[in-house]
Amino acid sequence: MAGTAVLGRLTWQAAQVVDVVVETRHVKTITFDVPDWRGHRAGQHVDIRLTAEDGYQAERSYSIASAPDGSRLELTVVRIDDGEVSPYLTDELQRGDQIELRGPIGGYFVWEPSQGGPLLLVAGGSGIAPLMAMIRLRATAGSDAQTRLLFSSRSSDDIIYRNELDQLNGGGLQVVHALTDGQPPGWTGYARRVDAEMLAEVGPSPAERPRTYVCGPTPFVEAVAEALVRLGHNPRTIKTERFGPTGG
Amino acid sequence: MDALMLDGNAVAGLLQEVFAVEVTTAIATCATCGAADAVGATHVYRGAGFVLRCPYCDNTLVKIVRSDERVWIDLSGIRTLEVAI
Amino acid sequence: MSIISRGFRRRRVADAPPDRVPPGQYVIRDFPVLSAGPTPHTPLEQWDFSIVGAIDEPRRWTWEEFRALPSQEVTRDIHCVTKWSKLDTVWQGVSVDTLLDGVDTSAEYVVQYSDGGYTTNLPLEDITGGKAWVAFAYDGEPLHSEHGGPARMLVPHLYFWKSAKWVRGLRLQTWDEPGFWETNGYHNYGDPWREQRYWGD
Which one of A169, B14, C79, C147 has the lowest number of neighbouring Cβ atoms within 10 Å? Predict the structure, then answer.
């Protein structure tokens, strides 16, 4: 499947909710079952479509947060207060409900175990979602690619997938957290916004020629990508996925 | 840089709907400045329609307008599109 | 046949008298920022506004000269082709009639041109006779750059893509020259009341 450019036109498929899990106070992960799902690559996304009874439709894109798993895929959704789609997904959707989605989409912002490492993954808030698919795939594929995740969140309560990342830490994966809005007592991670100094410390160095994936709100991605280039990283080894102004 | 700017990934679904090819890994050569890079690396803006701009010179590579039944795509800002087959 | 998602509704939209809402539009209270490109940041010392093309003599105003012109407060509804409408928006601007005062022209068409390369075209009669302004303030404040500041066109009787942000001038022409969006699917004229969104509408 990898390397095939001709995929056929995308069509909308039915997706049924099989589980809804609370990640943090504003974030939930929804597991969908999509019959005939042909699998996906880590980093790809889906477009979802909601249709109201009066015919009104809204479409949004969400990164797939799970590693390939048969007909199942997980989307992690941040609830934006005055949003139109995210409050529906996080407040309304229940097991058995259906939405439409199409995908998987994207061949640019993907990682496969065969590509190896070293990997530098930099996530801002919900930007962790596609990088988590990579981390999970790395684990299930038994990859030993040296991987560093630098994950910026607001407060420790806002760290999505925190327990799972704690468990996966080790065996070639190093997880480093940065909190911007306050730190709990005894916090040993970074306590400020991601900057060039932090990126240089977390590494890898440009000489190690890492593959870098940066995902999150646009201003975050811009700042990180710029800092990495100033540190000497080759821009062509840095792939970005910008979520727009709010990142939600 | 604009806080609203996205990458080529943001229009990947829309383009694949039309072209039936994974477009974000295609390499686009800018008709204005000659720089070549993946469509996924383009800078995407959302106005009345979508605009994909060259990340090197900011000139327009692609314009996309979409109604319910039709899509209009201007590719004249791309001199050459290289697609793996 | 799309699948209906149980309980999904469009976001609460503002109520509005139907005669103020063109077909296919819904009314909102916020002001979305839509842009075809990066926000330009021309310093005011370098900014000017010009009228060029099929006229006796080109006109040009620096920012100071422009701001010294008589201006008006204008309250209008605006309609975006992406289907949102915003009612009673309040602007401060110089009427295009003021800018064209004394201009001798045989032109029938106009192209608005902006920093960043955006253009949009209209018949000259659609920006004269009190129908268009070069606006420099919105809602009582200097126009923010994300909304087109320091100055943008305001042509409220047409879809809002016909009101160029970051406008730097008007080119009067004897021929019609479709602009940035008109060459790629959007309607050449763009009357929201006849729902002229796309080619062929």
Answer: A169
